[in-house]
Amino acid sequence: NYSEYVNVNKSVIISIDSNNTMPTYLNGFEVNSDNDSIIGFTISVRGISLKHASNVEIIENNVQQIKREAIYLFYSSNNTISRNICSNNIYGVLLFGSNNNTINFNHAFQNLVGLSLIDSMDNTMSGNIFNNNEKGVLVSQSNGNSIVNNTLSNNDEAGIELHLSDNNTIAQNF
Prior knowledge:
The protein is mainly beta. The protein has strands at 5-8, 13-15, 25-31, 37-39, 42-51, 57-59, 62-66, 69-74, 80-82, 85-87, 91-96, 102-104, 107-109, 113-118, 124-126, 129-131, 135-140, 146-148, 151-153, 158-163, 169-171. It starts with a strand and ends with a strand. The model has no long low-confidence stretch (mean pLDDT 92).
């Protein structure tokens, strides 16, 4: 177990050893480079942040009890966020100014907002579960996104909420 915050500024793959049966804990990651992978961690304190990064994979992480965003993309494009669990955070996943990302098969629960898109275009969200949040999905000033085949249940205020957003595809959500 580690109690460090990892700042990545070159291309790397960071994953737990497949023979490791114990969860690996970190305080968080900040990625400022392209072509990285973050796979299989339990993260608390700071979460995972991508800043001006592309072609990064964030896969099979458990990000919990973050006082802000569990997974945060800031002006980051062409990334994949898949099979993560985000619980007990302010935001499960937050994209700000981030385009052409794929967000699929994640579970965000007991957050204020499960997924939020702000000023973000052409992202694809599918196969996610957003439940027991205040808001499941919040889309603001974001156009051309696809929110299809997600499960949204028991969110207190809204399953999907849109503000000043056009040409988004919202279909077959349950």
